């Protein structure tokens, strides 16, 4: 379909995965809201929302699927995985446990359910790095460094690694552009058991 000089590409599914409190919902809220978000972010009203961006004058429409880490939500997460063409894998830079879980839980799960979907690795809550005395909760340890993020991105074969702040909207535009490019480079929603591996081209 053509609208003016812009072409519309069909809607594609993107799933957001990561630990409890890693910042998935806030990231989605920041992506879909035009204005800056300050203070506490609202809990999700919808678990799926549509989001439109433009890449090379092509309108890319996505379905952003929010998920929950809890075991009792495994079934609904499976539904979210089904047919997703891109995975946004989130951890919070102030929660090393959420970083470790990427390796131990989320990456194996992704390989199992959406093998071949490109991964965007996102270090959420990057604003915390800029605080004079970053609050490190008991048992949490040090903040995750950008270098650690890049190493993990390499390990999981992520096509991009970004650090974002949903509250400050830092790098949200970069995430939107990266998502648009990656989604655009992928084919139509595919069945979750497809065997081809990372066959997308980044445009
Ligand atoms: N400082 C800071 N806090 C954030 C940011 N994004 C989210 N938070 C806070 O982190 C907490 C968790 O954020 P959510 O977006 O609900 O995280 P989630 O991954 O959706 O959590 P679950 O749905 O419970 O799995 C909330 O208290 C947010 O206000 C951010 O960019 N910076
Ligand atoms: Mg959430």
From TrEMBL:
Biological process terms in GO annotation: small GTPase-mediated signal transduction
Q: Which Pfam families has this protein been placed in? A: Ras (PF00071)
Q: Which domain of life is it from?
A: Eukaryota
Transmembrane segment boundaries: 79-99
Q: Which Gene3D superfamilies match?
A: P-loop containing nucleotide triphosphate hydrolases
Q: Which UniProt keywords apply?
A: GTP-binding, Membrane, Nucleotide-binding, Transmembrane, Transmembrane helix
What PROSITE patterns does the record tag this protein with? RAB (PS51419), RHO (PS51420)
The entry lists its GO molecular-function terms as: GTP binding; GTPase activity
Q: What is this protein called?
A: Uncharacterized protein
Q: Which species is this UniProt entry from?
A: Serendipita vermifera MAFF 305830
